[in-house]
Amino acid sequence: MKTLNQFLDQQMENPEFKKEYEKLQPEMDIIRAIVDARVSQNLTQKELAKRTGINQADISKLENGTRNPSLRLLQRLADGMDMILKIEFIPKSKI
């Protein structure tokens, strides 16, 4: 039985799969940052919803990748967690 990482490594050998997977990486990074920030503060989605005025169902959709956040929504989330929203462009040569 293959592990998820073994399966992913095998799929990444396919150039088309790799290209599509890499296109999704920025979205996955944003989702991971939202979840990590919330969890690091021991907040439930419901608690974050109360702090931000964002519906808990919408926070769930953001975290499971079925809704793309606007910059304004990301700022509201950051404010609700007493954090600063920082967006950074990094040259590909530094990755």
Please give a structural write-up.
With 95 residues, the protein is mainly alpha-helical. It is built from five helices and no strands. The protein has helices at residues 4-11, 15-40, 45-52, 56-64, 71-80. Helix 3 packs across helix 4 (56-64) and helix 3 packs across helix 5 (71-80). The longest helix is centred in the N-terminal third of the chain and has 26 residues, at 15-40. The mean pLDDT is 94.
Q: What general outline do the C-alpha atoms trace?
A: globular
Main beta sheet: strand number and arrangement?
Answer: none
Helix and strand run: HHHHH
How many beta-strand runs?
A: 0
Radius of gyration: 16 Å
Percent of residues in helices: 55-70%
Overall mean pLDDT stands at 94
Quick rundown:
The protein is mainly α and 95 residues long. 64% of the residues lie in helices and 0% in strands.
Question: Helices and strands in order, then pairings?
Answer:
Elements: H1 4-11, H2 15-40, H3 45-52, H4 56-64, H5 71-80
Helix pairs in contact: 3-4, 3-5
Features:
95 residues, mainly alpha, 64% helix, 0% strand, globular
